[in-house]
Amino acid sequence: MPELGRAALLVTLGLSTYALVAGAYAAHVGRRRLARSAQNALVAAFASTAVAAAVLVAALLRNDFSFEYVARTTSRALPTAYTLSAFWGGQEGSLLLWLLILTGFGAAAVTVNRAWARDLIVWVVPVFAAVATFFAFLLVAVASPFTTQAAPADGAGMTPSLQNPYMLAHPPLLYLGYVGLTVPFAFAMGALLSGKLDERWLIATRRWTLFAWAALGVGQLLGSHWAYVEVGWGGYYAWDPVENAALMPWLAATAFLHSVMIQEKRGMLKVWNVLLVILAFSLALFGTFLTRSGVVNSIHSFTQSSIGPWFLGFIAVSVAVSLAIVFWRLPRLRSPTKLESAVSREAAFLYNNLLLLALCLAILWGVVYPMLSEAVRGEAVVLGRSYYDFFLRAFGLPLLLLMGIGPLVAWRRASLRSLATTFRWPTVVALATGAVLLVLGAGSSTPGLVAYTFSAFVLTTIVMEFARGTRARKALGAPSWLGAFTSLITRNRRRYGGYVVHAAVVLFAIGVAGSSAFDSVAEAKLAQGESMRIGDYTLLYRSLDERETSNATQIRATLDVRRGNRDLGTLEAGKNAYTIEQQVSNEVGIRSDKLTGEDLFVIAEQIDPDGSVYFRVFVKPLVNLIWLAGLVFLLGSVITLWPDRREQRRLVARATTVGLPATR
Amino acid sequence: MTLALVFAATLAVACVVVVALPFIREPEPESDSLDDLDEDEIRRLELLETRDRALGALKELEFDHRTGTVSDDDYRAQVGVLRRDVASALQALERDVEEGRPVDGRN
Which of A197, A196, A353, A204 is nearest to A280 (CA)? Predict the structure, then answer.
């Protein structure tokens, strides 16, 4: 059924073009039915894209190798789950997923908000439609997943490292995040174009932004865990351009989520917020461009890529047009209030924003520089790990500290006397933690020690905020301590959910500092029966086994692990040789200590025909806190995303007073 | 191939119907102009936002003072300003109502 897929995409292109042209015209001249018709076109575009997606899924499940895409990304031996994941494993499929999510989000955001923000929505529709038109055009004219061929007997298969359960969730989550950032962008542009610059565009997009940001965050952590357990180089983040592609929009969205609170509470930073939304959206597009254009491998593969130049052109046009619209509306974006003091919560948020943006731009430069150097000098000069680590420390450590400072500083202004009182306990705990760690020998890494000290400061702040808030709620009449705690969170989900997210960032920082600043590594070539030591671990290489699975030959070295005198059981590390794909992957052995969060990480680097194996072994203290941070991050995100009935009632009352329909 | 084309044609027709629905439902409406907020409604919306922002800030200050995050001195320095903000926002809204600026309550 490739014809149906192609026709469905053509229909999507027609609908999104109609929504763009008719929607913009209707908004400009004020035609109600035409505007509604454009909104319907956006909803219908989702339906037709869903049909196209269903055709591709069916082709994948039927191993229909007459579809070039299916033959290129799957094989008959591939397990069904990975066959499905091939939907987003290749360029054309992932573009189709982009379009599917985009039209779905567009249809949902427009439908949910069209009653109470209808004057905004008429302009939001053409913005959504413009982005959808671009992706639909790419899929119809440049990179169609429905190109056919004479079907080969079998497909080329999937890259072995992608044959991992994490690949079922990691890419779709990243796409949810990337595409989700289109929602605040479309509403911001809609607000600017319509001139309706009241708070509604912020309210309409708050949860969408949070959702996109949370999906990007969780997606990145899953990707890191995938790299850790599957790629087999001993780390979880390599500052690879494709990894950075997801980190940059996440940082920009994080900055926006903080600065938008200043606009909501103080009416300030309107221009800044719009610029952050544009930046986050542009970086999401840039991230897709990076992963899909081939530019990461070489500037030459970019020029040969079918979609690269189109993407770059679209990014340039969307940035230029967005900035022109902001410039046009600058007089309407002036804030009625000003920053009253450099020592206030809004000032702390502003410092946080500047640091996040600085880190984001430093990473962007690190990603772009090799491409520019290759384009100008003919040689790609890659900025290595030390470049990124420097900026992570320079901007990341003050950011960590600010997470603790911000909640303790009052809005508008705070006196130094007040600060001395509120900072007393966090400072004492932080300094005591630093001193104890120094005595225990953690002084070998200054950044690591500083990270732990700052983490102690932030954690104390968070605990104090929850404890004092719960006590206050109890004093205000909550029937029990648990009731007080629950009411504290439910009455201000954003604030206390935000603290939970901060706790996740602290856990993450502790995990990163522990596993990167205080890790150890040992290497040895062992014959069966020989052993090696790392720290207080002893590893005895016992045996080598080979076994066949449906799509690979697995070779595993078994090691007996002891720590001191304690037997910790066995660990397997080895390689998988994939028959169809003709590729070999490292399959690492990991033993996690649930109590300390430490990992013993074994790579069988080289397996010789005589059965001897070259092992590389790492001990990574506290690394499991990174994955725990992911769960805490998810919890915090759910708390902040959960619908707030009080706020809903307030918004409905406000809308009713003005005369807008009281529905959202 | 034929079945695919039938499906594709059905999809295209269904989409055209959905897009044309506003015109099919209302072939000759009394008014086809966008139901936009007028200047008065926008101003009132902004006044309501100012009121809610001021009330929210006052509520947060009270709570932060109760928890001890905001000291007595800082509380005293700010509470008066915020109360004045709330009062002026409420007065502006009242004036708006007294001056009889219409809110049409359309749905």
Answer: A353
pLDDT, residue A663, reads: 43
How is residue A601 annotated by DSSP?
A: E
Angle at A456 between CA A453 and CA A460, to 5 degrees: 150
Backbone angles phi, psi at A567, to 5 degrees: -80, 125
Give yes or no for residue B101 having a pLDDT over 70. no
Within 13 A of A458's CA, how many CA atoms are on the CB side?
A: 28
Cβ distance B35 to A407 less than 8 Å, yes or no, reads: no
Nearest of B20, B25, B22, B5 to residue A18 by alpha carbon: B20
CATH architecture of A165-335+348-367: Up-down Bundle (1.20)
**What is the tens place of the pLDDT at every residue in A197-218?**
888 899 889 899 999 999 999 9
- Buried-exposed string A437-458: b where 16+ CB fall within 10 A, e elsewhere: beeeebeeeebbbbbbbbbbbb
- Is the four-CA dihedral B42, B44, B48, B50 of positive or negative sign? positive
- Reported as half-sphere exposure (CB side, CA atoms, 13 A), residue A469 has a value of 24
Asked if the model's pLDDT at residue B105 lies above 50, the reply is no
pTM of the predicted structure, to 2 decimals: 0.92
User: Is A463 near chain B, with CB under 8 Å?
Assistant: no
Paired tokens of A34:
């035409």
Size of interface A-B (CB pairs under 8 A): 169
Q: How would you list the strands of the sheet with A589-593, edge to edge? A: A520-526, A613-620, A598-607, A589-593
Q: What is the pLDDT of residues B12-49, one digit of tens each?
A: 999 999 999 999 999 888 888 887 777 777 888 888 88
Which residues of chain A carry a pLDDT beneath 50?
298-302, 662-664
Maximum CA extent, chain B: 80
Question: Of A146, A143, A137, A138, whose CA–CA distance to A6 is shortest?
Answer: A146
Backbone dihedral angles phi then psi of residue A421, each to the nearest 5 degrees:
-70, -50
pLDDT, position A662? 46
What are A329-359's pLDDT values in tens digits?
A: 999 898 878 888 899 999 999 999 999 999 9
Which residues of chain A have a CB within 8 Å of the CB of B53?
264-267
pLDDT value of position A9: 97
Contact A409, A343 (CB under 8 A): yes
Instruction: Please give the ipTM for the structure prediction.
Output: 0.86
Q: Where are the domains positioned within chain A?
A: 1-163, 165-335+348-367, 520-620
Question: Are A275 and A253 within 8 A, CB to CB?
Answer: no
Interface probe, candidates A1, A411, A473, A652, chain B, greatest B C-beta count within 10 A: A411
